[in-house]
Amino acid sequence: MNISDTKATLSFSNGSPDVALPVYSGSIGPDVIDIRKLYAQTGMFTYDPGFMSTASCQSTITYIDGDKGELLYRGYPIEQIATKCDYLDTCYLLLNGDLPTESQRGDFHKLVINHTMVHEQMQFFLRGFRRDAHPMAVLTGLVGALSAFYHDSTDINNPEHRDISAIRLIAKMPTLVAMAYKYGMGQPFMYPRNDLSYAGNFLRMMFGTPCEDYKVSPVLERALDRIFILHADHEQNASTSTVRLCGSSGTNPFAAIAAGVACLWGPAHGGANEAALNMLEGIQREGGVAKIGEFVAKVKDKNSTVKLMGFGHRVYKNYDPRAKLMQQTCDEVLDELGLHNDPLFALAKALEKIALEDDYFVQRKLYPNVDFYSGIVQRAIGIPVKLFTGIFALARTVGWIAQLNEMIGDPEYKIGRPRQLYTGSVRRDVP
Prior knowledge:
Layout: E1 2-3, E2 8-10, E3 19-21, E4 23-25, E5 32-33, H1 38-42, E6 62-65, E7 70-73, E8 76-77, H2 78-84, H3 87-96, H4 102-113, H5 122-126, H6 135-149, H7 159-185, H8 198-207, H9 218-230, H10 238-247, H11 253-264, H12 272-286, H13 292-300, H14 321-337, H15 343-357, H16 359-363, H17 370-381, H18 388-408
Helix pairs in contact: 3-18, 6-7, 6-11, 7-8, 7-18, 8-9, 9-14, 9-17, 9-18, 10-11, 10-18, 11-18, 12-15, 12-17, 14-17
């Protein structure tokens, strides 16, 4: 962060003296106005609901240009990462700042793969949940409980503890997600295998049974790996900010990540792909492709409550770069499984075509986003809709950890303490 030659001056119409505010520049992206001393200088706060114009931190991890439709991991375009690297390479990059050398790659992959098992007592903890519980409710509890099973790495201020907990979380998240799924299905848990890839191991733990060997499809393995890569980090979103805020209190890494999982569950955030599939299934129940025209008309109607899920993005004002990659993966998976003629997927493709060609959606830049395509891919693979957000949490764990580590290492870091504009009753006495 460098001081800019540009200066900002805050003026008041009530005769109060002007306030000079420093301006800082990053390597790319908008400059920021430093308001840290604003309250001390003026007795005022800023007001920014949703933090739409507020930089809460400085970061070197992820950069988004919403107007250009650009996403960078440590400076590398997501298009290159998703086509030339695998998920564990991406994890190494986000955690360490650079892509691994060949030897570093081998060591890191081995380290993660060899720590995928969870404490055996975890399965008994899991049995305390109802079988019909939402997987995200179960996963929130399981991740938070890790601190009770691995209490030797809970000091967030100890770099060694943070490194150990990072590997444990990345390695064990697929196992926990698969356990949550198997528990709800009433099927036996599948232990991880060290001879499989990260994504391949997850597929086996999800869909394998002790009755027979599970053969991992290379196409599905790569598709899932790409989903993980595309969801690994996304700058200061709601769940990442939650992890940072939670971690700023000094709580253990497992608790901070559990807070991120809980935040991600919301339908406006990680639950968006689940909402998109639910929308498609709703249209299908009403008549499928033949009813798309009626559905689109309701979306366009200002007086209607019908929303188009899986299209548009709060940050990207152009095409979501992740969506283009996911669209390609979607076609590969449907080809592999012979599902292009499946009614639901045919419906999705018809809706996609309308959104890309209809002036109403084009003018508003409501392009299909990553949630739309990833939901289709996951359903095709056999992942139930309720588990979509769990897959998202699995992938995003490394981003949360990288952001948490960066915050702890920042000399300017302090406990988060947002302020407010109070509009309640003034002081009054009890009668």
